[in-house]
Queue: 3 jobs
Job 1
Amino acid sequence: MLTVVKPGLQTTLQGAPFSGHRYLGMPAAGAADCLSLALANRLVGNMRHATAVEITLDEAKFTVERPGILALTGAAGFLRVDGRNRSLHEGVSVKPGNQIHIGPATQGCRSYLAVAGRIEARSLLGGQSTYLGGGLGGFQGRALRARDRIKSTNGSSSPPAQRETPETLHPKISNNFILRINTGPEISILTPSSQTILFEKTYQVGARTNRMGSSLKGPTLEQQCLAQMNSAAVFPGTVQCPPDGEPFLLGPDAQTTGGYPRIAQVIRADRHLIGQIRTGSVIQFVKVSNERATEIYRKKLSLLTPWLGAVSLW
Amino acid sequence: MTIADIHACDDWLSCRLESLDAVHAASAVIRSQKTWQEVVPGLDSIAVQFDPAQTTPKQAIDLLHKQLLRPTAAAEAQTDPITIPVCYDEIFAPDRDWIAGKMGISTEALMEWHSSLQFTVTMLGFMPGFAYLQCCDDIVEFGRLSKPRQNIAAGSIGIIGDQSCIYSFNSPGGWPIIGRTPIQLFDPGKDQPALLSANQLLSFRPISRVEFDNLAGKQGE
């Protein structure tokens, strides 16, 4: 129901992550900011993890081919339909020929355009999200290009009764992040002073940042011994530290195993924020216990449930 | 393995194990329990992921500890040994001559030697279907490329000492490359999408460029 006019930097179809196949090397993929995805889907009456259009940093433009309802959430600077400003976090009825203009993100990184109904995407391993590294899923396994047609089956033609995300649930998108972390299995490879530095100093996201991961610039972390570590499981949100002491943070498309010490893990409740970091974002890591992380996650879900229904974040 | 070997984050655990055999044995048993969202073996550890809305880290630790304490038979290879055809022609093997030089042997001897080795698939990881392989031969140490390549072709065979690997997709990578297989390692349309599995025995069979093209053509049909 949408034709891509201008795809921007990297626009992909993303929904739920792939699950249960990491032992085969299959990464999670899926929406980098799963909370913004769920909020967008809520506004058009879709399942919360339904496949939507993930837009990265830059502006993007689409033409509407069929009448329907769409909603935009996330970092976009604005949403215009035929040149008229519309609000993010609002269900918008559109007609064939309408020009959708999504503004570049002034802060944060990714936006989600949900369309009422079911977007057609390649299915594999129980999912439909795009995994760019393998050219799998989504729209022909790749990022969208101009003139691509995003097809969808008809959703409900009238939007849900409540058309706007409650103000209190609008995620605060900025370029400063507090990410709560648990210590990782190899934290003790760092010298005691470096272990302190990681939690006390801030890090800035480097030029190398994408769906696979982000380099972090800040105080160099020293390792007590540079013993080779055997490859072990890593997950989205894992912070690894190579011998050069410059840590990096893994994103949704990260590989499933890695050979660098796993020094920290962003807790599940804060992991959706990783989808909004960009070059120059400032990150403060805050250490919490794993029990506390579970409490925070359950609390967050309970705050979201009245609006989103039963939902999980990833 | 004791409970102290288990490290818990809020939605995954990692447990150090004493050997790769123990990892293979444990992962087979734990996966069969179907209690975890992910069971990911490493080379000397195993990780499991769970839903923190349902399970606390403490509950998860207790459960994993119990599962790991259950006596396990030595891990039997669950799949038949496999032979992977590989073409060692220079066009597919940018580092072949360099590696042969490091080992002090001719390129012919390198191909003969590599295809005579018996490998075990230690694990899949890095990318879907990417296989890490280990052999028992004593080999001079040579490391990764000092500068990783931006694009390594799918099917490329890498080698670092007694370890080899097979790239399943075009990707950046740092392993020296000595050949390429036309066989597809990951097919998401299949019930078993990965061609190889952990703990499988594997050897290589040298093929000519003509046979490579024939096999590659058949894969495309």
Job 2
Amino acid sequence: MTSLHKDKIAVRLQQLPPLPQAVTELLASFAQEDVDVDKLARQISHDQAITARVLRVANSSFYGLQSKVGTIQEAVVVLGFRAVRSMVLAVGMNSTFRTDQCRGFDAEIYQRHCVGTSLAAWGLAEMAGCNRDLAFTAGLLHDIGQLALASNFPVEYAKALEYQRQHDCFIVVAERDVLGVDHTQVGGMLAETWHFPATLHQAVSEHHEPAAAKADSIANLIHVADVTAHALDFSRLQEDMVMPLDPVAWERVGGDWLALRQALPQIEKGFAETCQSLML
Amino acid sequence: MGVEDLATDRLLPGMVVAEAVVDEGGRVLIPVGVALSESTIASLVRREVPAVRIEQEVVEDPARVEAYRQNLRERIDYLFRHAGQSETSRALYQTIFDYRLEHRA
């Protein structure tokens, strides 16, 4: 066991560069009642690196725009706020964590799973009585602890990934066995460091044990979405595996098989579109 | 959906007309989209209409359908290998399986 002490992790997380301002503002916007889209667009455009990458995606052939968009504000008008926000969050998080030093960590599979969970959460939000955009973002970020581990402790995390491969077990089990800590705990620490809104904090830290979360925690929905994304084979990981669907969480999100069945085509369509827009 | 020209003596009740059947004067005997009945077929025979263009349902090769089903079953069984036997996990399995079977790529 390569046990990672929580103190050591905490110190390392404190040393992370702060999230790009644009990302922080977008995250905070989820806790706000009224979102000032113009103001957010202005804030995003202050970050040149993020703006350049988002515009590159927005101007990619996928969208087939007649004329190119040159500013974030134009991108919001043409593509919609939701599309731009998901680009900014995905691009912003990626620029903060570099995972190429971690052997066995496949960033594309990670992203595909997160986007898949996002879309599943978005598609099931109505059934669960949850805000769709919040559900989408919570899905996008739910496994961020994995990203933090792979980028800050690449050697140790590679061992956990190898252990998972050998034992054909869930990643949380491998993390606990090898590191003594799992991605929900590390994600929770990161959420504190970066002052995530409470809902997103819950999504990150409680999605693997929703029954222990509060009945109205978004972790219930994210757990269901996480399981659904695995069941739909979104990551394209050959060895992927579906976790047991927690009956408590299913009950709490107003679980209805017909509603799930009817949401599936929309979830798959949204997934395909989002992957294309993010070039996954 | 394809179309097929069938000799009148091979028509069966329930088959759907893909192109209006007209007499020599151009009068419509059976409009497009109508399902044939015993009596309409009999009238076609009486009028000595040689053939009728009918809609042909694309009949899928049962072996291919079965192969798809088999592959699907194997993949979903594999994905669910650690999902347990709880009622919720089984119901999710079935929902995904039915969906994939219906929405074949």
Job 3
Amino acid sequence: MPFMFHAIALTPLNLLGLTVVAVPVLLVAALGLPFLYGRPLSERWIGRIVQSGMIVGLLASLGVLGLMLAQGTRSVTLDLGHWVSLPHFHFAFKFVFDRLSVPFAILSFVLCGTIGAFANKYLHREPGFARFFMQYALFVMGMIFTSLAGTIESLFFGWELVGVSSAMLVAFFHERTAPVRNGLRVWIVYRISDAALLVAAVVLHHLRGEGDFSALMGTYPWPESHTVLTGNEPLIIGLLLLVAAAGKSALVPFSGWLPRAMEGPTPSSAVFYGALSVHLGAYLLLRVSPLLDASPTLSALVLILGLVSAMFGALASRAQTDVKCALAFASLTQVGLIVAEIGAGLPRYIPLVHILGHACLRTLQFLRASSVLTDFRQLENAIGSRLPPFSSPLGRFVPAALRVPLYRLAVQRGYLDALLFEYIARPVLGLFRWCDSLERRWTDFLSGGQSRESDRALGAASTLDDLSL
Amino acid sequence: MNLDLPLLELAILIPLAGAAIVSRIGNSDQARLWCLGFCGAAFACTVGEWLDFHTLHAEIAHDPGLLARSMGDFLEIDALSAPLLPLTALIYLLTAIATLRTKIRRFSFAGTLLSLALALAVLSCRNPWGIIGLLALRTVAPYLELRARGKPTRVYVLHMALFVVTLAAGWLFVELEGLHRAHSLWAVLPLLIAVLIRTGGFPFHCWVTDLFEHATFGTALLYLTPMMGAYVAVRLVVPIAPEWVLQSIGLISLATAVYSAGMALVQREARRFFSYIYLSHSALVLVGLETLNPIGLTGALCVWLSAALSLAGFGLTLRALEARHGRLSLTNYHGVYEHTPLLAVCFLLTGFACVGFPGTFGFLGTELLVDGAVQTFPHIGVAVVIAAALNGIAVVQAYFKLFTGTRHVSTVPLQIGLRERLAVLSLAALILGGGIFPQLIVPARHHAAERILSQREPPKPAGLHPGETAQFSAKSRPPKPK
């Protein structure tokens, strides 16, 4: 047989590692199969299953960490064998537990577990309760697969799952138009990011014949690994991965989706766009950091992109009128700084610790966001007047002539969405609409009359017009 | 080598006899029941034939039936066609199952059975003239339906007539030129045009959208989803065409895949949207077939299976929605999720499977296809990724338009019935099963791909087993002129 799961040695480390990987898969199966059959589980059962899964996953990943520390092991590879193995093409199913992936997996379980417990109460009796947790389970699976991926294909697998579950969660309140429209926006940016990652995977296959990260970064454990790619190869693959990371982490020029993602329910905004998925881009850059070490040009680009995104986030967050959007841009500021730290070549543990700390803090802020407004109101009622408005001391250093343009730029979120729509989406859509009109003329000519019966079913609007809003 | 049982012959004869019987039944309900029985029996035969072939470990197997033996190489299967037969029978069976009672008067069950028999006959046939004749016969049923419904037929007739003429003329020239490997443009160009027409390659694609506009959704779906154009390409063009012709088809298909994916984004009606998604995938299969490397070819054969299955599921989901709401506009939101959550899930699942989403049947095929395309077309092979990205956006956009965005109020229940549930859940199980266990399919497809490539190589005089040599070389070269 060309495919086989390898017989894995039943060591405690491997068993715990298998548990970490299996928990999200079982969670998806347990919630998804009844959902697919049209008979979703009750709220109580969903709550129990999610809670148990997160606890088991967290304990298993803590166990992996403990054993690795006790044994002094820097890296453990869980090689499940080739999913498909053909001559010149291997799709390996491999997970790596090292100093980067284990903290990220633990963070994922902690935050997802917290949010699972929170959402269990927050969404009580919400009609889409089961749907939320189905998408949540897909997200957890995507996060764990991405965190632990030992090959670029496994990473792509998780990356796509995170993308689709995020877009669907943004559109969670789907009986309204705005969340759906914003979900589509998020999905479009994610597709660009996914395409870049897939091309990177293909280029890597083309260069090395496999998508194993060890083929990309050598066999030394992270962060001491060194790339085995030579010449311009690190720059080419690195640029593709940078586009993928920028899309996923909402770096400039893709930042427009971040405030739009806040249309989703608060628990999903908190854990996904405030804490976890927004850091995935930075995580990817950390994972492939040896490529940055090998290419100063790539490092410089990462540094510039990080700093620009941080400045943009800081500026935009100051002009937002809604707390979730302000927090979203504050997140972008920190993510930009993390990316800049990676580009500047600081010791790799610094951005990792920054990610862990920022994710936890931001989750707390998001979860408190709705109740803190109530607290403010109570405080104002108690003192009998408005609280003094907060103004940044930095504002004094901005010349008066620049204040209005900067404010406008911040309120309009850098015009990034409008620019992308006007200069990329609209011309492309216009071209295809023009082709469509040509096709209509051609089929009308061939059939000697009106050829499109479907016109009768149509309204006045066009598809994707929503994007301009 | 012979199959153990004459299942191949039975798989064709059963629906053929069924068509004759069902055409005499006046009651539509009874006709549907009989049709289901015949389709089910044909499907069981094709599954049996696939298993039989699998256990033989042969390159080619002949049917031992009386009729088959009297017809020479008309009825035989190989690694390429073995899984395509049950797939095609399954698509017909599920379409018949999912046809609602409100639609059974418009849907021709006898015509469906006849079409199934012809489709299975095409896929069981390796004789070039047999393929050409059967494909020509297969073009008749949609035409008759269009005429019977008083719809415009000119676009369809012009394209299909050109397809049949170019295919026959091209092959005639191939035979006249004999066994020479390098065929003239007189032979190759008509074949190239025929393949592009049947697969819906740019600029010969308008008949596909036109067919979806005017025929019943079921008929259009059944005519197109088995992807006979790709079959023509593998059987008649790949073995004899020079490399530059195949690369030309590959490049045109690459452009068609991106163009159709972009067109799917701007469509304002669900059937047209579906037809462009179909065109894009049909072109992607052709891209892989023309890469002429084992990885790309394996990817194409995998995507062929996965796209046919998922497009059928996707089409059936749209058809079920259409049966409840009439023609579906994509310019406004319909918000029917709360009424038909299972259809919504299946729409997303089949749509994502089409675009090769992880965990679905199409994932590995798409990966292989991209890899193979980049090997053959290093600078523009990435267009496959662009097409997949655009298709993904179009699918989610259509999902949002159809199922969300507003709250649909209905005075009648719109839930899907048991039969529709059975059809979509079966497809969902296959799509997810194929995604989780691709190793059950991919190696066999790789073997088929290697065999297709070997047909382009000169016959090997030595190094093979004696029995294998005779059969291999006889099948690897173009047939002798008659």
